[in-house]
Amino acid sequence: MKTIVEVKKLVKKFPIGNGFFTALKGVDLEFSEGEFAGLVGPSGSGKTTLLNIIGSLDIPSEGEVIVLGKSVGKLSPKEAAKLRKEKLGFIFQNYNLLPVYTVFENVEFPLLLLDMSAEERKNRVMETLEWVGLTEKVKSRPSQLSGGECQRVAIARAMVKRPMLVLADEPTANLDAANSHNILQTMEKLNKELNTTFIFATHDEKVIGYLHRIIRLADGKIIEDKKITTTNP
User: Fold this and answer.
1) Domains of the chain, each with CATH number or no CATH
2) I need a labelling partner for 172 at 20 to 30 A (CA). Which of 90, 145, 158, 220 fits?
3) pLDDT (tens digit, 9 = 90+) per residue, 57-102?
């Protein structure tokens, strides 16, 4: 299988007072195309820091992270933005929807940055909203939606440009159990049907139950990396 993320001897340090806090301590890791994997650990374990570097939102202090053939530490801000714009999708726990925009407009937004006609954008948005079961909500605004519906809009927005890699940071943190399972089933379905790679950062047992690969972190290091072969809930 094609490797799409390579993490090599990654160290990440953050300045604190007169010293540094080392969030990641020599991490080595690879992800292949089509994986449904999670970085799992408590707060402070380094999982979100690692996810942010993979997403080119931050850069290594030492070592190298290669995403879709690009070394993120060597990219200019413009090049990093281009990688995110064209190849990556992001799903956050707080949805990050634009409140004055409709569901359609929120999902369409990433396509406005690409060279795509209005008709192409409309077809792509409607197809994506159909995937997540929200075609009847196209004219609604986020304030008119439930938390689960808002997260499905966020998934649609992440998937609308057909990214090769989706990064999800605690995507079920604000959802009840029923909505969490619906969201996770939606993402697992998209993973299978489109072969999109999903990498989660989570400590939620509901999410962990769906993962096909669990990478456990503690104190900035990987302490376990295992494939899951059992059936999902």
Assistant:
1) 35-52+77-227 (3.40.50.300)
2) 220
3) 999 999 999 999 999 999 999 999 999 999 999 998 888 999 999 9
